[in-house]
Amino acid sequence: MTALFLRDLKLSIRAGGGALIGVLFFLTIVAVIPFGVGPDLKLLSRIGPAIVWIGALLAALLGLDRLFQAERDDGSLDLMLMQETPLVLTVLVKCVAHWTATSLPLVIASPLLGLFMNMDETAIAATMLTLLVGSPAITFIGAVGAAVAVALPRGGLLVSILVLPLTIPVLIFGVSAAYAAVEDPAPFLPPFLILIALTLFFAVIGPAAAALALRNTAD
């Protein structure tokens, strides 16, 4: 499992620019927002957590279609299906490696982008914390879409279409928790705990559903 994690980590970084492309796309989305909404610093500060979350969500979708594509191309997907190690565990390790290579850099870059949106220290810290907790759920959801579309020659757009609606609850509670940390009357803990619960839920359901989809694709 350690060798698989390191292998997938290297592949995720090398393929298409990996983490660098995601961070640049994240930066582009957040950087153009002030040009669209105008120079109102109060407005930018108010919508900052939502914009950072949306940018991170869209950037995280970039490489999901490649989650199982390398194994499909070189034939190692068949070996994964036949090995003694449970396929669910293999998919889980691949999801963790993919999140480490693509989504974790987005979390690290989020404080810098929060400054672009004129967010204060509390809002930046809350947004970074919610991204750290909630972004793995996006990867686990994306694994299902990637497994469904792995046999298609151009499944990248299909993965985004399948995954995006399922990530809406993660986006809602992630943004709600970030706003709650800034606004004193709104408690931070309830939406944050729901966000953690969503990540744990999809950590169980996502790899299992992706493993089932991979087996059906092979059949």
UniProtKB/TrEMBL annotation:
It is a multi-pass membrane protein. Keywords: Cell inner membrane, Cell membrane, Cytochrome c-type biogenesis, Membrane, Transmembrane, Transmembrane helix, Transport. The chain crosses the membrane at residues 12-37, 43-64, 85-108, 128-150, 157-182, 188-214. Required for the export of heme to the periplasm for the biogenesis of c-type cytochromes. It comes from the Bacteria. It is found in: Cell inner membrane. This is Heme exporter protein B. Pfam families: CcmB. Belongs to the CcmB/CycW/HelB family.
